[in-house]
Amino acid sequence: xxxxxxxxxxxxxxxxxxxxxxxxxxxxxxxxxxxxxxxxxxxxxxxxxxxxxxxxxxxxxxxxxxxxxxxxxxxxxxxxxxxxxxxxxx
Length: 90
Prior knowledge:
The chain crosses the membrane at residues 29-52, 64-85. Keywords: Membrane, Transmembrane, Transmembrane helix. By secondary structure, this protein is mainly α. It has one domain. It is built from 3 helices and no strands. Helix 1 (2-22) runs parallel beside helix 3. The model has no long low-confidence stretch (mean pLDDT 82).
């Protein structure tokens, strides 16, 4: 179950990054924007939690958690820039 959840979140983060590179019109409504923000923050929290838990298990390679954490940080940074900082900068 944990591995399946991490894989789904990696795919969703990768699709978000792909959609920003292909389609530049990504200004969504308030509900969709809040859903994406919660999804990206949740991905960071879950991947960090699974990464810390993997230290206690011997023989477990936490590569999937590291991939999800890096993709989540990149996605959230791009998301925050496009949706909030670009409004402030004008």
